[in-house]
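This part of the workshop introduces the protein records we will be handling. A record pairs a protein's sequence with a compact description of its fold. As an example, a complete record with its sequence and its structure tokens follows.

_____
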Amino acid sequence: MSVDDGQADVKRDLERARSRLRLLSDASVALASILDADEALGRLARLIVPHLGDACVIDLVEHGRVRRVTTVHRDTARRLPRPPHNPPPGPGDSPAPLARVLRGAGPLATTDFGPPAEPGSLQAAQLRLYRGLDAGTVLIIPLKVHREVLGALSLVRPASSGPFEQEVVDIAGDLAYRAGLALENARLYALQQNTAEQLQRSLLPELTDFSRLQLTARYVPARKGVEVGGDWYDAFALPDGSTVLAIGDVVGHDLTAAVRMGQLRNMLRALAFDSGDSPAGVMRRLDGTMQGLSSTELVTAVITRVYTPPSGPWLAHWTNAGHPPPLLTSPTEGSRLLEDGLAPVLGVDTSIARGDALTPLPPDSTLLLYTDGLIERPGENISRGLTRLRQHGASLAHLPLEEFCDGLLERLTDGHQDDVAILALRVPAQTQVLS
């Protein structure tokens, strides 16, 4: 071998080493930056192909079934076999390569893909997959965390490419280890997010004691990747027969915000029921109590007191602490925002003057309280969201209340990044005393 040939070999080895290091670096970034497990594993598979194999397949074990998450081939025009319908891993003595790895074997490189199997089984699905990928050699590596196999990463080569080199086996094992950690982190995050959401839902009231009023509420958690926030609503009757409707948002997006939301709602109930004060008076009391007895920092809220007199129109009496204005919409009178009674958010200064506003509620109208997730979009002026709300509120006002709320959420929550809570009251077509 000449000196030039030796130098060329060294350069090739260095370039191959740099390429593998870039792959490990890029894979680490892809796995660490995404909390959606399927998306992260899909990115990993696209990074691996064609550096380590002609195809990459990732399967996960979920609830005793095997789910194929992704299949990537270097030939993007190739028609890939459809994923199986989550078959079970198979019997404990199954000789199928994937089943063996999922039981704890591996890494496993093989050219023997196992015997024919019953239709609908995991082995049958794997044989169909390997035929579709023209597989000659398959390297299957477990995705393992704390001795638990969460799934498997498979690399596929045609027969013409020969066996997998030890260097490729080592790199694939490193990637599988990182993928297993990322998968475990994503599952822990999803568990935490679900716990926070369930806690928040448990702290919100069920509107089952309002047969005399037509009330509906909805809570929609933020889309994936965003933590649960402190959105809340409440409705309760006062001794004089009026009804308090309230909605608000505690600053924060975590379990702490959900807990503080529950504390705030309980304080509001006690203050409103005991004092008999106006909405502005209750808001002032709530601000003082919150700052004296709670670690909650900033809160927006609307407190509305609804009166149903023996004759004449129903009345809404409200105050607003830095919250989006309520919407009043009617099939005959259109929509308008109740923008009076506005003062700064709670938690700033207890000496701030707070005022009330009063408006009649026309027959067959709908009073809607909502949190900012319904109207806000990143990079958009909030006035556009309020205009959108008025327009859709007017177009849906003729629908039954449940359909009205569902229609608003369907039209306005596309792409939302924050929690959404809404509380809606429908005034009867002929207002009268409700017993």
Q: What stands out?
A: Residues 63 and 88 are 9 Å apart (CA to CA). The longest helix spans residues 166-203. DSSP finds nine helices and 16 strands in the chain. The mean pLDDT is 86.
